[in-house]
Specification:
2 copies of one chain form a homodimer. The first copy, chain A, has 2 helices and 8 strands; from the N terminus they run βαββββαβββ. Chain A is α/β, with parallel strands linked by helices. Chain A is globular and about 40 Å long. The first copy, chain A, starts with a strand and ends in a 6-residue tail after the last strand.
């Protein structure tokens, strides 16, 4: 058995715009922007898994079944930074929890967990 | 800026069953099965990102906006192994491509790419 997790592919209305947003949000690097329908970022050039943004025509219609969770060194600082960058706070019925539920510019839900290490 | 990608959370009707399936598919380890609504796996105990399966009541209704892509050493061997394990081949209109499009036991789409390195 030998499967390496290369990436999560993210359906996007605008792959370059959404991929650039995530590059800035995570401090990652662009590894492929050679085609307008594809935009690929990684933590560093040879580090996987990365994120591959792929153009699709159908719009997001429901809460995603898969979402990203990120662990910050400082929760409040990172949430403030992401909101400034264009993320939005969303209510998916999470109630009073230790993590923040945000959405990226195309509405993909993700969480910023409590401060600490994974 | 300091965000570590801790996991992808996967909505699941049966977190333990689906998480165990992915553990076996990837050869990963279980890091949390202490609650029936949560099942967490990682490549190894301290390696992230991992996968967190979380019980949800709503059923999968559409093609996922996010999906996993894995790079195999030997494409045909890995696809055969995953089908044997209970994955299914699906047609999402991909046409004649170098990767295999499969679904896990709860219907989450994922791809096995061509043989090689990421």
């Amino acid at each position: 058995m030998s499967l390496e997790w290369e990436q999560v592919t993210v359906a996007a209305a605008d792959p370059a715009a959404l991929g650039t947003w995530w590059k800035d949000a995570l401090g990652w690097v662009v590894v492929d922007d050679s085609h307008p329908d594809v935009f690929e970022i990684r933590p560093s050039e040879d580090e996987v898994p990365g994120l591959l943004f792929l153009r699709v025509l159908d719009a997001k219609a429901a809460k995603n079944r898969l979402h990203f969770d990120f662990r910050p060194v400082d929760h409040d600082d990172e949430v403030a930074r992401l909101l400034e960058l264009g993320a939005t706070r969303i209510d998916i019925g999470q109630g009073d929890v230790s993590w923040a539920v945000l959405a990226d510019p195309e509405g993909n839900e993700f969480c910023v967990l409590s401060s600490g290490t994974p």
